[in-house]
Design goal:
Elements (H helix, E strand, L loop, with lengths): L2 E8 L14 H5 L3 H5 L4 E7 L4 H13 L4 E11 L6 E3 L9 H4 L1 E2 L1 H7 L7 E9 L1 H9 L9 E7 L11 H10 L7 H12 L7 E6 L53 H10 L3 H19 L4 H16 L3 H17 L7 H14 L5 H17 L7 H13 L6
Parallel strand pairs: 1-2, 1-3, 3-6, 6-7
Antiparallel strand pairs: 3-4, 4-5, 7-8
Length: 402
């Protein structure tokens, strides 16, 4: 039975573009349709920078009702609408103010594919996000349907005033151009492996038929700790949450101690460009958690992780790398195993931020600390320690500038 392939690449025109999504289509289009589908023959539908969400829906619905296996390749950027704060795939005319009307709701993928037979649908995704959506994804899985196999990556915001490249999808296309499609889990592993240090900060999607396709797989770190705070312990009758004073950390009961959610306030500050205010607020809650629970507690580490991500969003890779190294060291000192997901994620994120440091002085300092940690926590991608050592070698050949 012939298969069906839907190639969808979309991103806004103008300054709102985070990724050059359509650049991957010529590479994918050069792949034999049967190889794209993994069937003897296949029909291919291509959508390049579509303008209207209804046009995308029409093509998706037609693909979903076609018999035989369906493979959907989606490249683009996710944004939240301002009313419901739900993820959408941004289209050519999408702006932050018009997401609800000009972008494609991600829930439509789930709804249109939900009646397909289990095991017949595969999604390969290469998605980038803005700062608000990146934070939202830490607390919410990108639900693409219970019976669909979903592979790919979600990347954090690119550097300021830059447009990212869909490296994961280009790697997938390059592999497929060999003329043979390996099993999709192997295809995914090979593509992730080609990302190198660029992909250390990604949320990697690898959910073959699982509930909530946003659950990260076993090939790379899970997303960082959510800006949604750690769940407080159940308070005694009539008392405040255990260990919390009046600093407003209880997200489950916002009416107690300030009627305010610190994570929401931090998000608002980031969106307004007040990065110093956001970090100052997170620092206050970090100190409160240290006083209440101890410096190595999950509560304190959560706020250090929040500050590490805030530094990333502020474009300060030195501060972000240093914070992630501190988190990893604290977790190891507390007895957590080097293969623990939280430990690996902290080292991977430190590695990613270290790669963005241009000043050779802090790059050397933090690189030595990273290399030491990489010796203990090699991570799940081959060659991570070798990459650090190679970069350090190059740094040693550069003159100090300060």
């Amino acid at each position: 039975m012939p298969g069906t392939v839907l190639l969808l690449a979309a991103s806004p025109v103008g300054r709102g573009r985070l990724v050059d999504a359509a650049s991957v289509l010529p590479v994918l289009a050069a792949v034999d349709p049967a190889v794209l589908s993994g069937t003897d023959t296949a029909n291919v539908v291509e959508l390049a920078d579509p303008l209207e969400p209804q046009a995308v829906l029409t093509r998706l619905r037609a693909a979903a009702t076609a018999p035989g296996p369906l493979t959907v390749f989606v490249t683009g950027q996710l944004q939240l609408d301002r009313k419901q704060h739900l993820p959408h795939l941004a289209l050519a005319r999408t702006t932050p103010a018009t997401v609800r009307y000009t972008a494609f709701p991600w829930a439509w993928f789930r709804e249109e594919l939900r009646l397909r037979a289990p095991g017949t649908t595969t999604l390969l995704l290469d998605l980038h996000t803005d700062a608000e959506t990146w934070q939202w994804l830490r607390a919410h899985p990108l639900d693409s349907g219970r019976t669909n196999a979903v592979y790919g990556r979600v990347a954090p915001p690119p550097a300021r005033r830059s447009v990212a490249v869909p490296s994961y999808m280009k790697a997938v296309a390059t592999i497929l151009r060999s003329g043979w499609r390996p099993p999709v889990d192997q295809l995914h592993q090979q593509a992730v492996g080609r990302l190198g240090a660029e992909g250390y900060a990604d949320v990697v999607l690898a959910a073959p038929g699982s509930v909530g396709a946003g659950v990260p797989g076993g090939y790379a770190p899970r997303p960082p700790a959510a800006l949604k705070g750690p769940r407080p312990r159940t308070p005694p009758e009539g008392g405040p949450p255990d260990g919390l004073t009046d600093v407003g950390l209880n997200r489950d009961n916002p009416g107690r101690h300030q009627n305010a959610d610190p994570h929401g306030a931090i998000t608002d500050a980031v969106q307004a460009g007040r990065h110093a205010d956001a970090d100052a607020l997170a620092a206050e809650h970090e100190q409160a958690a240290v006083r209440a629970h101890g410096r190595g507690s999950e509560e304190a580490l959560h706020w250090i992780e929040v500050r590490a991500d805030l530094a990333m969003l502020a474009g300060d890779p030195v501060r972000s790398c240093r914070a992630w190294l501190a988190v990893a060291g604290a977790r190891l000192a507390a007895g957590q195993a080097s293969g623990t997901v939280a430990v690996e994620a902290a080292v991977d994120r430190a590695h990613h931020q270290w790669g963005r440091i241009h000043d050779p002085v802090p790059a050397r300092e933090l690189g030595l600390a990273l290399a030491e940690l990489r010796g203990l926590v090699p991570g799940r991608r081959k060659g991570a320690l070798d990459h650090v050592r190679k970069q350090l070698g190059q740094l040693e050949s550069q003159p100090l500038t300060s």
